[in-house]
Amino acid sequence: MQLDKLSRDDYIVGGVTLLLLIDLLFLPWISVSVGPFTASSSGTGSPDGWAGVLAVLVSVALLADLVVERLSPQTTVPNWGGGREATRFRLSVVIAVCLVLKLIFHVSDTFNYAGFGFWVAIVLTVVLVIGTFRLSQGRALLKGVGTV
Hints:
The chain is mainly α.
């Protein structure tokens, strides 16, 4: 592979997406403790695990889109509304919508029993949406730093 074709912005978007995938699959989103016993559920588990699973699938699609565009530029991949960066922005919005739906359907459960993974996912999702939006506008992710 020719990793030199990946820019700093690509590494940031790809890294944040990969961290979000790890968060959704492995970190505790809901934790309930009763005495010495603790039970937890990941972002793809109950309640409303379907929203977490959709977020995982869309995250994989976002990563695949980024990798295919940069490492195999001759491959034609369909875009969603005007270019690769715009497509990745829209995919990040879909991820955010899935996670917001998961939150909305169980607001009382989420805030009463929110685990570490839930709070990390909020931060990662905000960073991902803002980052892909900036890239779709042709701006660099880090202010004052151009793309490599």
